[in-house]
Amino acid sequence: MNMERLYLVAGHLFGVEAPEDILARMKNYEPFRVEAKAGEDSLLLFSLSVVKDGKGVGYIEELRQDEEGQEIICGHTGQDDPVFEFRWNGRTAGWLVCSQGYGKGTLYLSGYLPKSALDNALMIQFAMSSACKDTALFHAAAVSLDGRAYMFLGKSGTGKSTHASLWVRHIGGSELMNDDNPAVRINADGTATVYGTPWSGKTPCYRNVSCPVGGIVQLSQAPYNKIRRLNGIQAYAALMPSISGKRWDSGIADGLHRTENALAGNVPVWHLECLPDEAAARLCKETIAQ
Question: Which range marks the domain in which residue 161 is found?
């Protein structure tokens, strides 16, 4: 039996229609669940329908992304509808087929790792459909302190989660907002807000919280601790690799550019070369959270 649920993430409303047993696995979405109201269908950022026992989808491949045994293949149908295939360890978990603009999507599950396929499908549809609405989904860790949010960026394995945990452990009042996929939304006045999301990587942290951005820190490993402010094109370039999006789609690319430009121009961006130690966390905090 299929059921419908609504969720609100970073101020964006989306709907999921899925078999009851699939929805029962979506515990990480519960903090973001909202009750349906009359007329809200017209306010949805996107909707996703989930089909069990999918038989596969034919598509034209565009790009492959592979990280830690997980592979996402991007492509399109003969009618140019976007398609994403999700694989783990060489096995397909599902195929996401979206309408152009990403307002509607259908996820066909293979039966292998259905929850992982559903999380990926919703993350992708959220990132793509919100890109033109002043919103970006970051690959980052985020903490809050004294009413401000601080995000830590870097390549996989750089130590984002470690640095965030050092803040929580050693800097009083710090709280983890999200460990892997916070959302950032640009407000009408040009300021930015960080939001927790239902997606948080290996560390479960599914908090429906938000704070104004206090600073963004690009991390790199080093045998010492040193921090410096990035300006202009340096700040912009530091943000780009950490933002999810289909850059070869001009509409998505333009939307993300506006968000990146607003952040680089209005939010302090720093580069921290560091060790994974308490001293690095304290140097960072004392520099960026004044």
Answer: 136-288
